[in-house]
Amino acid sequence: MQKIHEEIRSADRIILASPIFFFGLSGQAKIMIDRCQPFWHEKYIRMKPVPAGPHGRKGLLLLVGG
To answer: How crowded is the C-beta side of 25, counted as CA atoms within 13 Å?
Structure first.
């Protein structure tokens, strides 16, 4: 996961797309969000801002339910 965290830190944009099953995210999307908890901890508990990078920090969350 450390390698993936470095990829997330260096990414220009992050897009997460997931279907909605029974009013919840798919298991894979939930796992990805849960595994990003260290970013939340670093920003809000350790009070250390996460650097934005050269292109800022933008993301897109795309959810589709039927």
So the answer is: 13
CB-CB contact of 42 with 14 (8 Å): no
Query: What does the DSSP 8-state code read for residue 12?
Result: S
List % helix, strand, coil for the chain (3-state, nearest 5): 40, 25, 30
**What span, in angstroms and rounded, lies between the C-alpha atoms of 3 and 5?**
5
pTM of the model: 0.71
Dist CA 18 CA 26 (whole Å): 6
Give the sign of the dihedral formed by CA 29, CA 3, CA 52, CA 15. Answer: negative
As a whole number, the mean pLDDT across the chain is: 89
Tokens of 25: 């995210």
